[in-house]
Specification:
Blueprint (H helix, E strand, L loop, with lengths): L11 E7 L3 H16 L6 E7 L6 H11 L4 E5 L5 H11 L4 E6 L2 E3 L3 H10 L6 E8 L16 E2 L14 E5 H7 L16 H12 L3 E11 L6 H21 L4 H17 L12 H17 L20
Parallel strand pairs: 1-2, 1-4, 2-3, 6-9
Antiparallel strand pairs: 4-8, 5-9, 6-8, 7-9
C-alpha cells in the first residue's frame, strides 16, 4: 500500500528559546498563537527549545502545543547558553525563513504580515530585524529599539544594538553560509551576550545584507526595574563587547569601534558616573578588558556540537 505523501515544508519556522520562565513563556506563546492565527495564509511551525529548565516550562510548552493548529516542535538543549539553544532550534527547524524571538516578547498585530512582505522582495539571503517596543511601562526603557527609519548595517556602523536578537529573521541560507551562532557568546555563558552581534559582524564581512525595518515590531516585557538591574545589564553588554572586539580584532572596522570606545572613556574619565549611565568609566573599562580575556580563555564548542543544517562547514571563526 503506497505511503501517504509527506506534508509540505513550512514557509516559516518561528524559533523561541527559554529557561525557567514558565509564566512569561505562557504569555508569550499565547500572543504568538494569536499573531499566527491572524495570518492564515502562512504555513508555519514553532520550535521551542528548553535550555535546561527546572520549573513548569515543559508543561507550559506541552499544553500550548496540544491546542495549536500548526506544528510545534519541543526540543531540550542541556548545554547552557542562548547560542547553543538557538543552534538546536535551527537544527530542528524546517522552514525556508527562520524568525527568532524571546520568551518575554509578544509580536505586535500584523507582525507576520509585515515579515512576509519584506522577505518576499529579497533577491539574496538577508537578515532583518524590526522595532522592539517596551511592553510594560513600569519596566526600564532598555533593550528596546524605536528608530523610525529603515537602515542597512554598514562596515563602519556600530553593530551592537543595530537589530535585536529578540526580533530577528533570516533566510535559512544565511546560516548555511555563515555557520551557526558562536556558542561562546550569549545569555547563560561566561560572555553573557553578543551572539547576535557576532553573527551580524560576520554577515557584513561576507556581504550578507542586514536590515532594520521599523514596521516589524514586537513588545518586550523584560521586567528590569531599578538601578541594580540596569547595572547588571550594562555590565554584561560591555563585557560581551570586549569579547567581540577580541574575536574580531583583525577586522579594521571593529578595531575602529574599539578605539572610539577608548577615546570616549578617556574623554569622560574625570566625570565619574554619569546620571544616565550605571557604570563608572573605570568599571566600564574593566568589564571590556575582562570580556577580552574571557573570550581568549574560552574554548570553542566541539565540532560535533557545531553541526549546521545540511552539514555545511562551520564558519564561526
Amino acid at each position: 500500500m503506497p505511503s501517504a505523501p509527506a506534508p509540505p515544508l513550512p514557509a516559516l519556522s518561528l524559533l523561541l528559546c527559554t529557561r525557567n520562565r514558565a509564566p512569561a513563556l505562557a504569555a508569550s506563546l499565547a500572543a504568538l498563537g494569536e499573531a499566527l492565527a491572524a495570518e492564515p495564509g502562512l504555513t508555519a511551525e514553532v520550535v521551542v527549545v528548553d535550555n535546561g529548565s527546572t520549573d513548569g516550562t515543559p508543561a507550559v510548552i506541552a499544553g500550548w502545543a496540544a491546542a495549536m493548529p500548526f506544528p510545534v516542535l519541543h526540543r531540550v538543549e542541556a548545554r547552557p547558553g542562548l547560542a547553543a539553544a538557538r543552534n538546536a532550534a535551527v537544527r530542528a527547524a524546517r522552514g525556508r525563513l527562520l524568525a527568532f524571538t524571546d520568551d518575554d516578547c509578544h509580536p505586535a498585530p500584523g507582525y507576520f504580515r509585515d515579515l512576509r512582505r519584506h522577505f518576499a522582495a529579497d533577491r539574496v539571503p538577508t537578515i532583518r530585524g524590526g522595532r522592539v517596543e517596551l511592553g510594560d511601562p513600569e519596566d526600564l526603557p532598555v533593550t528596546i529599539k524605536l528608530d523610525p527609519d529603515p537602515a542597512r548595517l554598514q562596515r563602519l556602523t556600530r553593530p551592537s544594538g543595530f537589530i535585536h536578537g529578540c526580533n530577528m529573521a533570516m533566510h535559512r541560507q544565511v546560516l548555511e553560509r555563515l555557520g551557526p551562532f558562536d556558542e561562546r557568546f550569549g545569555a547563560g555563558t561566561r560572555l553573557r551576550a553578543g551572539e547576535d552581534t557576532d553573527l551580524f559582524i560576520r554577515a557584513v564581512r561576507a556581504g550578507v545584507p542586514v536590515h532594520y525595518v521599523p514596521d516589524m515590531a514586537v513588545r518586550h516585557y523584560h521586567g528590569r526595574r531599578g538601578r541594580a538591574a540596569l547595572r547588571r545589564l550594562v555590565q554584561g553588554y560591555t563585557l560581551a563587547n570586549g569579547a567581540l572586539c577580541a574575536k574580531h580584532f583583525r577586522d579594521g572596522a571593529q578595531r575602529r569601534h574599539f578605539w572610539w570606545d577608548l577615546q570616549r572613556l578617556a574623554r569622560d574619565w574625570s566625570g565619574g558616573t554619569r546620571p544616565d549611565f550605571p557604570l563608572t568609566r573605570a568599571a566600564a573599562m574593566l568589564a571590556t578588558l575582562q570580556g577580552m580575556a574571557l573570550y581568549l580563555a574560552t574554548p570553542r564548542a566541539p565540532r560535533r556540537d557545531r553541526a549546521l543544517p545540511g552539514g555545511l562547514p562551520d564558519a564561526t571563526q
